[in-house]
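Exercise 7. Predict the joint structure of the components listed below.
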Amino acid sequence: MGFIDPHIHMVSRTTEDYEKMAIAGCLAVSEPAFWAGYDRRTPEGFYDYFRHLTEFEPRRGKQFGIRHYSWLGLNPKEAEDLEFSEEVIALLPEFLGRSNVLGIGEIGLNKISRNELRVFQLQVELAIEYQQLIMVHTPHLEDKLKGTRWILDVLRESNAPPERTLIDHVEEHTAPMVLDRGFWAGITLYPFSKCSIPRAVDLVESHGSDRLMVNSGGDWGQSDPLSVPRFMLEMRLRGHDPKAIEGPTLSHAIQFFAQSRKFSMD
Amino acid sequence: MKRLSASELIQKDFIENRSRLIDLAAFLDRIDRASHVSLESDFRMGSLQKAIVELIQGGSDRVERIQNLLSDQSILLLESAEKNQGAFGAVQNGCC
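Solution:
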């Protein structure tokens, strides 16, 4: 059975990871722009990063038959300087037409400051203006609940279309408010700071899998690029049939991504 | 396929969760051995102790109750996040 990893930072992974993912059945990945582990000092640093996501990573994935899609934006950790943020956002339109770009992401909130919120609003407005899909990062740990509430407020005030917006890193206390408002929701399978695989299956069993998809969130931290197939195994061991497993691991991602004319599984 | 029964789920996951429980007990013992200060003096440990109480309360919404207990329930925006980028896993002002 094949799968899509809708949120993985392949820039931080080895080529061997691409190979292991392909062996495990990975058909496509989507990679949102994120924090590099340090703050970039210039907008040109982002320009080079966006080139990397739209030129180099698709070639690496192709070696193993994995389609590589990307999302471009300014992550909230680097959004405190408004002037700098506006310069980075001004770079985005040049890249949005590139063949593997599905939309704006991952944008959102981290510590939920005034400037983070403003930069998030600006990027949501840009996504709407350029008819892009949106991928939203929700904050970590104790900040997730508060941040998710603010994010939903901004999306509502901006008239962002819920069916074209994926809100990621949901957990038990935030998934219902995201799904109830008609948004897509991502569950990140991360060893400590997000959602474990058994809990992710619990979420699917409790809420159903409509508009839910799971991802590895794989990056330079402790994370596992094979966590989506591990989730599939856990579902199988818990008695779910192949069709039920396919929803959150493949077909829902296809359904969501296919709203961009650039996405294809052919 | 048939979903697992309660006894099948216990059979599948009991040992793993027994191990997690003992790891948690060992963590608390380790902190006790390392300090004469009460566990509650650190906001994270105080929250953890409240979460453990919540854990044994029963009900089928333990995870959501504990997630809420460990979450910032305020609505105020930070004036600046410049020197405040990390997360701790519990709320420092002792809310909840």
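Discussion. Chain B has three helices and no strands.
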